[in-house]
Amino acid sequence: MDSNIIKLLQLEKDRQNETINLIPSENFVSKNVLTTLGSVLTNKYAEGKSHQRYYFGNEVVDKIEDETKSLVYKVFEISDTEWGVNVQAYSGSIANLAAYLGVLELGDKVLAMSLEHGGHLTHGHGVSFTGKLFKFEHYGVGKDGLLDYENILEQAKKFNPKLIVAGATAYPRIIDFKKFKEIADAVGAKLMVDLSHIAGLVAGGVHLSPFPYADIVTTTTHKTLRGPRGAIIISKKELSENIDKAIFPGLQGGPQLHTIAAIGISLEEASRSSFKEYANQVVNNAKALSKELSNFGFSVVSGGTDNHLMLIDVTPLKLTGSEAGKKLEEVGIIVNKNMIPYDLRKPWDPSGIRIGTPSVTTRGMKEDDMKKIAELIHKTLQNKEDLGKIREEVKSLANNFVFNG
Ligand code: DSN
Asked: What DSSP state is assigned to residue 141?
């Protein structure tokens, strides 16, 4: 087909195959997820909830949305009498905003993790509308890189928030949702968990579930959960009607039915025992990678990882996060630059890089391959070998693990 965009798609496919992707929020989806995203569902409008639409011709898409929602209950082992599910949010950012708008009045107080210490823009950062519409205060980690629940409790008592948000994009340790619930109860706040990064780990049984403790759980579907780019909001039944209204008509128009169906496909995949093995391997690979990097003298924030990611402080290498990320990109290892706790630098050129194992694990890599990747990172950032030569080694490793869905 004579299309520049189609040609570029092939180039992007080649790039993904020939590089090693360590961005912890990315993954490779199955052929069925990709096919569903490119399906006829993109031709359909269906504003409203299933069975209560503003358009006609919904006999099939209603079944698809119902089935996807029932898979959410199955995968996270929650009851449909206690929880409401919304699978229409276009993204995690919209899901978070809808959750706030559904349970808060404008200007209400919210306590969440700061972006600088591993939170997210939509956890009330000043440049996000979440931070402009509500009064956020932020907690962080201690100098050891760990959440200090006593401190968070003290902060909550002083601030008296209506909602507490737990969840992070750059926290390498288990989050203790039970402790967050105790803090929320102590100040009469609701607890919301942004599960985006670790939803697949919870589905796979390798991270504590938030559902015994939270009032609302939001998650993107394209990270460890290995689905399309979309989001899910799960909320206690008494909250879900307002949250549903915040999504539509509050923030969105027609739902992206191709994405909803693809979320359903990925949840079918996540309900299989092979997904439990995947989630377990993601964590084992991250532990192996962080151990090997520490052995090479890298400064791993908090000393290691319990989940799918780690943060590396690159200042001892006399590099900034941007410089380290660029150098790794030159050899075909793809990471993202990231703030580290107590960073003296700014987000655009911070002191760290963030590394994760969801994508390489989907490609079939195991602990021995993590040793190889650590060595390649060591040779690149600690100037042990010509970058061109390392690039060839990366390509050869990547070519051994081409993902075919
Ligand atoms: N940008 C995502 C991440 O990389 O963690 C969060 O939205």
From this structure: B
Tens-place pLDDT, residues 109-139: 999 999 999 999 999 999 999 999 999 999 9
**Which CATH number is 31-270 given?**
3.40.640.10
Instruction: Out of 196, 339, 354, give the residue to mutate to test ligand 1, the one with the largest number of ligand atoms within 8 Å of its CB.
Output: 196
Write the pLDDT tens digit of every residue in 63-93. 999 999 999 999 999 999 999 999 999 999 9
- Kindly state the helix (H) or strand (E) to which residue 297 belongs, with its residue range: none
Nearest CA to ligand 1 atom 5: 169
**3-class DSSP state for residue 249?**
helix
The encoded tokens of residue 173 equal 């340790």
Q: Which residue's CA lies nearest to atom 2 of ligand 1? A: 25
Could you tell me the distance, in angstroms and rounded to a whole number, from the CA of residue 232 to the centre of ligand 1?
15
Q: What is the third-level CATH fold of 274-399?
A: Aspartate Aminotransferase, domain 1 (3.90.1150)
Q: The tokens of 360 are what?
A: 């390489």
Active site residues: 45, 47, 194, 220, 223, 229
Beta bridge partners of 386: none
Q: Parallel, antiparallel, or unpaired for β 309-313 and 352-356?
A: antiparallel
pLDDT at position 341 is: 97
The domain ranges of the chain are 31-270, 274-399
Atom of ligand 1 nearest to the CA of 92: 7
Asked if residue 405 has pLDDT above 90, the reply is no
- Residue 1 is predicted with a pLDDT of 66
Which is the closest atom of ligand 1 to the Cα of 122?
7
Pocket of ligand 1 (CB under 6 A): 25, 92, 120, 169
Q: Token pair for residue 120?
A: 């997210």
* pLDDT tens digits along 302-339: 999 999 999 999 999 999 999 999 999 999 999 999 99
Residue with tokens 């690149």: 380
Q: How far is CA 85 from CA 6, 79, 262, 296, 388, in A?
A: 36, 10, 16, 45, 50
